[in-house]
Each structure stands twice: as C-alpha cells, then as structure tokens.
Design goal:
One of its GO terms (molecular function) is NAD(P)H dehydrogenase (quinone) activity. This protein has a domain of 121 residues: Flavodoxin domain (Rossmann fold, 3-Layer(aba) Sandwich). Helix content is 43%, strand content 19%. It has eight helices and seven strands. The strands form two sheets. Strands 2-1-3-6-7 form a five-stranded parallel beta sheet, sandwiched between helices. Helix 1 links the parallel strand 1 and strand 2. Bound molecules: flavin mononucleotide. The site of flavin mononucleotide has 15 residues, from helix 1.
Length: 193
C-alpha cells in the first residue's frame, strides 16, 4: 500500500510514489495507491463519524478503507513536511482510518497496537535542510511523532523514515539521486526483482 499526500503531479512525492508502484508491480505484488488528493475518501473526521465510532459502529467508507489497509503487508507513506507536520489530508486520513478497535485498543495496561503484521516506511520531503532541523532536535522528534507515535502506536514495525531535504531546489540529477536513495531503502524487498 502506498499512501501519498501531495497536491501536485510534478512533486517529488508523486514521482516517488509512482516509482514505488512500478517496483512493487515488477515484484508481481498487488498495489493499492491511495493518493489523498484524489478526493474519493473524506479526510475530515465529522461529528457523525465520531458519534458512530464511540457507539461501536464504523462508518461504511472508513470500514472499506480499513479493509484495504488490512490487506497490506508493507505500507509506504510519502508526504511533504508542512508546518513541521503531516499535510492536513494525511492527518485527517489517519484520524479517520486508524481507529480505536481497528488499529489499537485500550486495556488496563494502556494501549496495544493491533496492526502488528504490517511494516511501514515513511518518506518525508521538505523545503529545509536536515541540519537546520537536527540542530533543534527536530528530526528525532519527527521520527517519534510522525512515525512511532502513529504507525508504531498501532503496532506496525517502522523499517525506515527517510527525509529528502531542499527538494524544492533539486534539479533532475538530484531528484534521481533521491529516488535511488528511496528505492535503496527497500533492499531486501527489491533485491528479489
Ligand atoms: C503549506 C506548506 C507548509 C510547509 N512547511 C514546511 C515546513 O514546515 N518545513 C519544511 O522544511 N518545508 C515546508 N514546506 C516546503 C515543503 O515541504 C516542500 O515544498 C515539499 O517538500 C516539496 O515536496 P515535493 O518535492 O514532493 O514537491 C511547506 C510547504 C507548504 C506548501
């Protein structure tokens, strides 16, 4: 499964998502690519959604999306860093899909992740340099907040979180370099092609 959250077709994010889909297809895998700008899934957790979920009913569109995710063994999440966080569409998708009872459950000892059969790789593009954020301790914070506290919280194993700095300034050569870097982050997977 590929989840991408960039509005522009020309973005590195979508370029990378397309390349990942190609690689997966070469392996003969079934690929589900959820481009969150295609707008066929609401990314706003509504009052009605919240009431339904609290009373134990999962809205039909959320349930359908959860079924898609349930099928996935490997999830690639590709997104630009916006205001040091996920783009709103990705945050909203997470709010609606990774629900209590599907993605995690609460017990006396705290929360338990339920999606333990899934591996995740995050790809974060950004305008700043890694150094600027590293100096403020924020790269580790992004790994924790966007990776561990979301996908890790749901029991998924995070096998990589990669950052693509100053991507807006990158020329063709640099984009190609980053694309290879991204694909190389799946060595044991793509080595089988
Ligand atoms: C609304 C908005 C907020 C942004 N916030 C940040 C930010 O907090 N940090 C950063 O490094 N870049 C920020 N950027 C720059 C984007 O991360 C950058 O344009 C994006 O990674 C380009 O992605 P692409 O190569 O996939 O096109 C922001 C861009 C937009 C449009």
């Amino acid at each position: 499964m590929i989840i991408s959250a960039h509005p522009s077709d020309k973005s590195f994010s979508n370029y990378l998502a397309k390349a990942l889909r190609q690689q997966y297809e070469l392996l003969g895998w079934k690929v589900i690519w959820r481009n969150l700008y295609e707008k066929d899934f609401s990314v706003v957790l509504s009052p009605a959604d919240l009431e339904a979920l609290k009373s134990g009913t999962v809205p039909a569109d959320i349930e359908a999306e959860q079924k898609l995710m349930q099928e996935a063994d490997l999830i690639s999440v590709v997104y630009p860093l916006w205001w040091a966080s996920f783009p709103a569409v990705l945050k909203g998708y997470i709010d609606r899909v990774l629900t209590n009872g599907f993605a995690f459950k609460y017990g006396r000892g705290g929360a338990t992740g339920l999606l333990t059969d899934k591996r995740v790789i995050l790809h974060t593009t950004m305008g700043n340099t890694v150094e600027e954020y590293d100096d403020k301790g924020l790269i580790e914070a992004f790994r924790t907040i966007q990776g561990q506290e979301v996908f890790g919280f749901c029991g998924m194993q995070i096998i990589g979180h990669h950052f693509y700095p100053q991507i807006t300034l990158a020329d063709e050569k640099q984009r190609e370099h980053y694309l290879q870097k991204a694909l190389n982050s799946y060595p044991e997977i793509f080595a089988r092609i």
